[in-house]
Amino acid sequence: NISSTKNQKIISELIQTEKSYIQDLQSLSKQYIEPLLKDSTILSSDIIEPFSDNIKSIEQLQNLVFQNLQSSLSAEVIVRRVLFHQSNYNFIFAKNPLITICDIFINYSHEFKIYSTYCSFHVRLTRLLQTNEQFKEFVDKCNPSQQHSSSFQSYLIKPVQRVLKYSLFLEQLLDFPEKIQSKETFRTQKAVKMMNKISRYINSMQELAEEFGQTFEYFRRNSNESFDFNLSNLCAYGEIQWINIYRFLSKKNSANLKSFMFVFRTGCFLLVRDEFSKKNQVKTRMFYRLFPKIVV
């Protein structure tokens, strides 16, 4: 069966690359994060400690996914062997590995939202590599072979690449016309739909971190108020029209004002950006207001 053979290759690649990905996460921790935790002069603890915790959480999640992927396949192989050696198999039911694997992604899809927090770290650390020479020199020393595959930058992008690739793996399992209207197709379509939704979510969080990450960092550094800007707790955000803005802000030129509202589980964050151009360079002035303890 051509489709069955192709499915087996796709599933095998999925499991093998999952194992490699977990090893990459471990290498990132051992080769870079642990040395950074030991040397507090490179990055402040409010950056590296939460990043380390986030990587540990991701590794824990991926280990669960990997174990489930392995067990779904091995269980099917074991049952096949039993069926092969037993003539009476009325009470033995072989697992369908395709359906089982799709169920793994359906059941874990919500857990992949943990990657939204990683997106903010990815953007922040990438920016620091460009602006903090001491940080860049430190991570370069942690890679004495200077191989790109084991560089901090290479490890840093892999979680984002991996979580976006799951839907592509699953979509490959749909390329078989003979399975139209089958149970496998229905379950695979559901898994693809859910993982595509996660991909869109992760992409939007990446864009959000790139556009507003520095604003959130500025607020953390300069405000006496404590507020959790963890993107995994973000319920909704977007540009809003603040009709009576001049009752609160005095600004003659309204064309440059843009208002944004971020609704977190712990409260709301209102941001007004005054974007102005000077010598062909766009700069931003900010006004922000925090509305804590709002139940969402």
Q: Level of helix content? A: 55-70%
Q: Give the number of DSSP strands.
A: 4
Nearest-angstrom radius of gyration? 24 Å
The span between the termini is 52 Å
For the residues shown, what is the average pLDDT? 82
> What's the helix-strand series?
HHHHHHHEEEE
**Structure annotation, total helices:** 7
Side-by-side strand order of the widest sheet: 1-2-3-4
Sheet of most strands: 4 strands, antiparallel
Report the structural category: alpha+beta
Shape: globular
Beta-sheet strand percentage? Answer: 5-15%
Low-confidence stretches: 77-94
Could you give a short description of this structure?
By secondary structure, the protein is α+β, with helices and mostly antiparallel strands. The protein has helices spanning 2-38, 45-85, 97-108, 115-131, 133-141, 152-172, 183-222; strands spanning 234-240, 257-264, 267-278, 281-292.
What does this structure look like?
- By secondary structure, this protein is α+β, with helices and mostly antiparallel strands.
- It is built from seven helices and four strands; from the N terminus they run αααααααββββ.
- It has helices at 2-38, 45-85, 97-108, 115-131, 133-141, 152-172, 183-222, and strands at 234-240, 257-264, 267-278, 281-292.
- The chain has a four-stranded antiparallel beta sheet, with no helix packed on it.
- A hairpin with a 2-residue loop joins strand 3 and strand 4.
- The longest helix is centred in the N-terminal third of the chain and has 41 residues, at 45-85.
- The N and C termini lie far apart (52 Å).
- The model is unreliable at 77-94 (pLDDT under 50).
